Amino acid sequence: MKNTPLKLRGRLAPSPTGALHLGNIRTFMITCLLARSRGGELVMRIEDLDHPKNKPGAVVGMIDDLRWLGFDWDEGYGSGGNDEEYIQSRRIELYAEALEKLKAQNLIYPCTCSRKDVEAGLSAPHSDECLLYSGTCRTKYLDFASAQAVLPDGRIPAWRFKVPEGESISFIDSFCGKYSQIPSDVSGDFVLARHEFGAGYMLAVVVDDALMGINQIVRGDDLLSATPRQILIYRALGLELPEYIHLPLVVGPDGRRLAKRHGDTRVSFFREAGVSPEKIIGALAASCGWAEENEELSLSDLLLRFDMSLLPHEPFVWHDDPFAS
After folding, report:
1. pTM of the model
2. Helix (H) and strand (E) counts for the chain?
3. Any idea which architecture 9-90+212-221+247-317 has in CATH?
4. Which residue of 17, 18, 93, 99 has the fewest CB atoms within a 10 Å radius of its CB?
């Protein structure tokens, strides 16, 4: 696999689990401004793996909302080329190839443990986001078929990555600073894919970013703790690491990630209510320190004001509808 070209390349990578909300747009806005301010390119990719809540028609709606808000991209889904090349579920052969490279290094194994099994094996409290796996299946099965044979119909084994015991993984995030983690203490051997041929998010996102030449990854800081695991995959496949930029999330008054419980924050909701794209972009720009309250701005306007040093490190708390008259 080849990795990054010299030109900066970022990506917009929505999942079709529903309509885009203001939290998504704030992250995408910063992603776009970072790339454009440095003369870089943007790729649009649809990440539809490991998402049981994918909704028919969601992709069309997301692309339409992004275009309406003034987003553009240079390559990928909706740019006039072969859209299927930028949809993860159409790229399974590429993930299978990467999986074979990991198999050849004896870095992965099939696992039949369910989430309930993993939880039952824990002796200490854990985060709902990441269960510490004890390695029950690490030496249990000869191959995927032998693991499959012990499972009931409708279930298949997962592939787990063998995490080096006690090794600390560190990287410099361009917004958060230095981050270190010992993955064997946090996740243990983690699920790489829930598909025989490697079609799972953790593997797919690394393979796709490498093959698409993505060298700047901008995303929410809820994924900061997952990055060391992805770094292990990069290293195992002999790939250069991208620049990581993890951003604070948009949250509700309760401090939890923005969701339906906080009211309707979908772009389509405000669009149907007659709110202009400039009002939405202006409000999100104000949350980043780049605009005054109630200013109406386009993405191109923001290029002249873009300054990452002004972006708060705390989550942006969504209280009320800023577009109400």
Report:
1. 0.91
2. 11, 12
3. 3-Layer(aba) Sandwich (3.40)
4. 93
